[in-house]
Amino acid sequence: MIEKPKLKLKKFYFHPITTFILLTFFLMILSGILSLFQTQATYNTINSNTYELEPVLVTVENLLSFNGIKFIISNAAVNFLSFGPLSTLLISLIGLSIAEGTGFIEVLTKRHISNMNKYVLTFLIMLISTISSLINEVGYAILIPLVALVYFINNRNPILGIVTAFCGVSFGYGVSIFVGSTEVNLINYTRNAARLVDETSHIALSSNLIFIIVASIILSIVGTIVIEKVIAPKIGKYKRDEEYAKTEQYHISDIEEEEQKQIEDEKNEKRGLRYALIVLLVVILFFIYSLIPGLPYSGVLLDLDATTYVDQLFGKNSYFQDGFTYIISIMFILMGIAYGLGSKSIKNDKEIIENASKRFTGIGTMIILIFFVSQFIAVYRKTNIGTIITAWITSFLENIQFSGIPLVLITLILIAISGLFLTSSSSKWMIFSPVVVPMFMQSNLSPQFAQIIMRVGDSMTKGFTPLLASFVIYIGYLNIYNLNKKKPYTIRRSLKLITPYFLIIAATWIIIVLGWYILGLPLGPKVFPTI
Question: Which of 38, 63, 179, 397 is most buried by a 10 A CB count?
């Protein structure tokens, strides 16, 4: 008997843009249902003057109501234009496009990066990505497009570069080699919560410094191994366009035939790189001078109204923090132009602009994606669903009776789970700190260690949720470099790509935290996990 061949159903893939549109409608419907059932939660905040707990009631906003629909329609433009990833990405791309258009990035990559051991390169990318959270989330907008471009030029799969940069920034978020924006965002909540138990409590800005320095190195090493041994083999090689390959071969053939031209090109390239290096040094000197208070015309990037230097550097009104992406973009622009003039790869301003404009050709889909993601994120935040889920989790934590390792572990896991629904570190800690810090102190655990648990829990799931605003840059760039347009990188496929990294790094974080606690290692100068 001849068996009939089994029919295989053709898989259907929604484009991420379509998915986010559908998710926005789903949130509207869900908010209506939850509002109908009067879904709500209560959490406590701390009055910074009286150090007393003040209850806050949060209810679900019904976006199917008249006011809800009016909010969505009337705020669409504001949601889009004020969406952080849009401005930071476009600003960084202007600098990168000019630097690429003059040939600077390609020559720099081929001369100084192509011969670098792949493990060394991956480690450096992981380390830079991890410590980039020193300045909030600028790493997503700068490093993802830059690393993808470097990998493409270096004949490595740019998809792997995107994953490497994204995982480094996300799952190492909050650790660095210096105190930064995380301290400024979290420490006031930690201090106020500690004073519920001990009015004399003082939390220094350096209280987590040793831990975050060591953790950033460990995560970069483990991340490098995971990327190269687990992720890279699954992603495979990048099959470049045959026409591009032929053009490259033809260009190489021409260079070999014209030996004199090769010598001249090398001479020009070296001169261009020297010019770029001089510009880099000038920019760095200006940058450093702008961060020094008290000198003539210095401190231009500091908020001089703030009392401490860290607040001047990383506070809410810090010009350094707000303008960092622009500064990096300017640096790439000046270095690109310096290289172009030195190497004679550009002749005039029109050529610079034309070459840079060509690099924006494939960015149209990304802009459309960002528009719909900005609406999705705005709708989600307006519903208050994330805040309510976090408040529920906090209430559950408040009612458990654990101490020691069980308390540390359950707190870490619950903060990590809440991070899937509420991605803002400061908003999350505002809700958790009045519960976690006193609970830890009553179990002989220091408030500084409680803040470590917050940082680690936040980092563990930071990149594993499409509710993270900068997730749009990750999924957008995956699709820009995706060669099979019929099979786009969906939310599910994008998350599946980083699942091994997420699981291994989460396990690594747990081992680091528990090991630190058991060994009683210092978190910072004269600060330990226990009181």
Answer: 63
